[in-house]
Amino acid sequence: MGDLIRKFGRKCFSISGIIRCRVGRRSTFDPTGLRLRTRWSADGGGGGRGEEGAYSNPVDALQEYVEVPLLGANETAFRPSVEEIRAADDAFRRLPVDAVTGVVNVQDLQAPSVPEVCFIGSSNVGKSSLIKALVADRKGVKIWISKTPGRTTTLNFYNFGKVLTLVDVPGYGDNMPENYVQSVESYLRTRKNLVRTFLLIDGAAGIKDVDKIGIEMMEEFGKPYVTVMTKIDKASHHQVLRNLLCVKQYRNDKMPSAFEQVFLVSAHHGFGIALLQAFIMYVTGNATVSPRI
Questions:
Q1: How far is CA 99 from CA 130, 157, 158, in A?
Q2: Are 201 and 225 within 8 A, CB to CB?
Q3: What's the pLDDT tens digit per position in 71-95?
Q4: Backbone phi, then psi, for 279, in 5-degree steps?
Q5: What is the pLDDT of residues 210-225, one digit of tens each?
């Protein structure tokens, strides 16, 4: 399968000067890339799950506003075809899901048999919501979502047949559980079949000091990880773009172990979910998709 992580050039992005500001009403993010919207509709205007927009990359919708490529020539980009993305989406919907929740000590688990990916982030960044979207809101699989930060206090495993496992872990920051080091850090350090960690950042708020807890932890461990910006439906095109550029700039300076490409998602509307599913299938060895530049 090969490792997607490789060293990248030290290209920094100047936020001022490369965004082509438009005069007019404040607009919200339209992941189909067709136009700016002044407000959201239930299906995102053609971008809802199950439609063509669901299989696109929300980053592409931002390219028209910048004068430099959002994915530079020296950066690895994951660009599967629409057919490959649809196949991953179908697999996530078709595979049986078995949930194992309430785990505190990794030692209490059985020996791993399939690749795992886990999701970390600050409290209330949307980890559980994202996993619910990835699971395709399957009946019989309960994923507790709360507006109160810190409600996830244990490791929760969602096994997709004998193919892969998604792992939801407690958030750091507000109401971080006392057993965080014992539980989460131990899992990240020692889990042998953990093939990728997804570090979540609020796409509407941008990178904050609390996010640096997870970044520093992953860099200390030296494990490959991927940045995912959540809640893009909560912000305008320009706000998401500015936050994306800030994350890329911080990545160049402080995140050498992170995959170059940043994924943008909206768990509420489903934007970017199918692309992330395709990437998960790829890094777990369940798809033959090749990165494209």
A1: 16, 6, 5
A2: no
A3: 777 788 898 999 999 999 999 999 9
A4: -65, -40
A5: 999 999 999 999 999 9
Instruction: Determine the Cα–Cα distance for residues 220 and 238; give it in Å rounded to an integer.
Output: 33
What is the number of helices (H) and of strands (E) in the chain?
7, 7
Residue 38 makes CB contacts below 8 A (sequence gap 6+) with 25, 26, 27, 28
| Strand stretches in 122-259, DSSP E | 155-160, 164-168, 194-202, 225-230
The closest alpha carbon to 141, from 199, 87, 95, 88, belongs to 95
Instruction: Tell me if 164 sits within 8 A of 114, measured CB to CB.
Output: yes
- Please give the structure tokens belonging to residue 229: 């910006």
Type of residue numbered 154? T
Lowest mean pLDDT among 49-53, 102-106, 130-134, 225-229: 49-53
Write the burial class of residue 246 (CB in 10 Å: 0-12 exposed, 13-18 middle, 19+ buried). Answer: middle
**pTM of the entire predicted model:** 0.82
Rounded Cα–Cα distance for residues 131 and 167 (Å): 9
Residue corresponding to tokens 């850090």: 185
